[in-house]
Amino acid sequence: MNSTWMNNKEICDALDITPRSLRRRINKGLVERQVINGSHSYRILDKSLYPTLTIIDNQITMPIGPSEKAKKTKAHIEQVRHYIEALASISAKTSMRVNIPPPKSHTSLCILLTDTHVGKKTDFGFNTKTALKCINSIPNKIFSLPINFDHVGEIVLLLGGDMIEGEDIYGTQDHHIDSPVIKQVENATQAIWDLAVNLRENLDIPVRIETCPGNHGRMSKTAHEESNWDNVIYQHLYLVSQERCDENLVVNPNFRVFNIINIQGHNCLLHHYGTKHTGTAATRIKLAGWMHVKKWDFMCHGHYHKSEIGSLYGKQIIKNGSLSGYDDLAEQMGEWDPPRQTWFLVTKNTPIKVIGFLDFDHGKTKE
Questions:
Q1: In sequence order, what are the residues at sequence separation of 6 or more whose Cβ sits closer than 8 angstroms to the Cβ of residue 125?
Q2: Which fold has domain 104-359?
Q3: Beta-strand pair 258-263/266-271
Q4: What is the DSSP letter of 207?
Q5: Residue 70 and residue 52: Cα distance in Å, rounded?
Q6: Where are the domains of the chain?
Q7: pLDDT tens across 281-303, in order?
Q8: What sign for the dihedral angle of Cα 147, 148, 149, 151?
């Protein structure tokens, strides 16, 4: 059944979708588009796909009041807004500018922690308990590395986003989480803070935390880019560090998607998304553009749940793995990568001197 013609805003409002989703429906033949004298108009071709609409005599009527999805999204946005405003009012009492002590030697041990996805559950043995167990096991894995820690001047914990699984990121996500997002934030903050304190106290080496947000922390597709649950975790860590008053355990929170970090005089670009590959023409152009604009010497990122080491013009690109390992998405894509995180040494003379992996035992095959 055909419906009346509408402009772009009217049909997006009627179907409760974004312009991008509208384009997908046009491509699938669910919505018809016509252009007359440069003016675009649209009409719905399949009424059954949109049960919230009523079509009477070719006229569309909307149900009174917002849809359940709209109500949920609005409530979620309000919850996050009030929560972040409360944190901002607390942190406003202290300066967010951190004095980072110079490293005691010319070697920095870096631990790249991304895609921990606290709160996620899979059919392959991963859940909140597994994620926290992995994070809690990192200190012992670090202590057993073949490193002379007397020569390490600092430990840099690089938090590269997707520290939690989040909520409402994709349509069926409610079936793949085992806790609400606020509990995910609490668990992740506690585990990461315990990790930093453990390293600081057992190795007696300064520890600093550097950050950038990922995509799973975002609160909605229309909210500000910095309104991200990863950033709430980072702000929590910062506030806790201020209470501890240890000049050798500092949190340097960054809420933007790109972060340039100075490590032993080299610029590290920390960016959650990075590039899927380093060898194709398109990705080389993108990396070269970032290299020109951001002036980075090496780059760290996550997002793809697959650990790889690439290079461009002699500069290394470290793509991190995840804690979840094999999951439903990997199964569908025919991909497999073990649950893994990355560590590496940076010296004054060499950006990446030594590199290795921290491997975990779960999620390697389907149970």
A1: 362, 363, 367
A2: Purple Acid Phosphatase; chain A, domain 2 (3.60.21)
A3: antiparallel
A4: E
A5: 12
A6: 8-65, 104-359
A7: 999 999 999 999 999 999 999 99
A8: negative
